[in-house]
Amino acid sequence: MRTSILSALAYIFAIAICGGPPPALAQGAFGIGERKVLPCFEKEFHFFEQLKLPVTKWGEPKPGATPQWNVDRLMEYFSDDRILYTDVNDVYGERVITRAALQEALTERKGLAYEILTGMARRYSTPYKQYSQLTFMHRDDGTTIVDMAGSHKVTFRIDGSKRVVTRIEYLVEPG
To answer: Which run of H or E residues covers position 170?
Structure first.
């Protein structure tokens, strides 16, 4: 109940801030057709689009597909100093990933940062609301939080003319 009220409030504020309701996203009860977002959230949305994995003719991730990312282009979406990562299942708490470590992990296609983004890419590339529906929320401090179907929250801040990722939270508990 509380989540639906918060979602409704976020939707109302988005309409007020961005000047109109978002276009329809879904095809069918659970599927996501063409993804469209309000113009004020396009920069954050493009980050998720960069993560997408190769898909089948049905629009789902190809089995065993690995990311085909342009690392330099993807790095444009990250803070110049670091990102913070939290996992609800991680007993070590918040982890700090430097920009250099992030770039190395993406280039070498291994390590924690690579696994984090690959997991997000798999979920985002699955075109069903329960896996990849995005909810956008502007905060008073100028940041934007994007919730991906309750599995991940990604925080962006303004950096000049772009939006950069400063925090990724993984929220799914086992079971």
So the answer is: strand 162-170
